[in-house]
Specification:
This protein has five helices and two strands. The protein is mostly helical. Helix 4 packs across helix 5. It is globular and about 45 Å long. This is MerR family transcriptional regulator.
């Protein structure tokens, strides 16, 4: 007999992801990317923090995911520009998938 996942198994805490904001030090710990490189990628406009002028950089879930994807591609030998393009396309796919999951969870 096949075990189908229940609605609870498919639940995903979208509210938590929307509220998740992490400082640059924690992002570095989570991703293994040095803070200096994170700042550089932000200066290039590839990722974006939610920092206010003069305050610590803080990053949301989407930017943490971008950092992880960028790191993976750069480690594989892609240039930062090529990795950035690939990450943009992947993020579009991820956003569509998350929107679909959220819609199903709301039903």
């Amino acid at each position: 007999m096949e075990n189908k996942p229940s609605k609870e198994d498919l639940a995903f805490d979208f509210d938590f992801l929307d509220k998740l904001i992490v400082g640059i030090g924690e992002v570095s710990d989570i991703t293994g990317v040095p803070t200096r490189k994170i700042r550089y990628w932000e200066d290039k406009g590839i990722i974006h923090s939610s920092s206010e002028s003069g305050k610590n950089r803080r990053f949301d879930y989407k930017n943490i995911k971008k950092i992880l994807l960028l790191k993976e591609l750069v480690d594989e030998g892609y240039t930062l520009e090529a990795a950035s393009e690939k990450v943009s396309k992947r993020m579009e796919m991820i956003n569509k998938a998350l929107a679909s999951l959220k819609k199903k969870a709301d039903e």
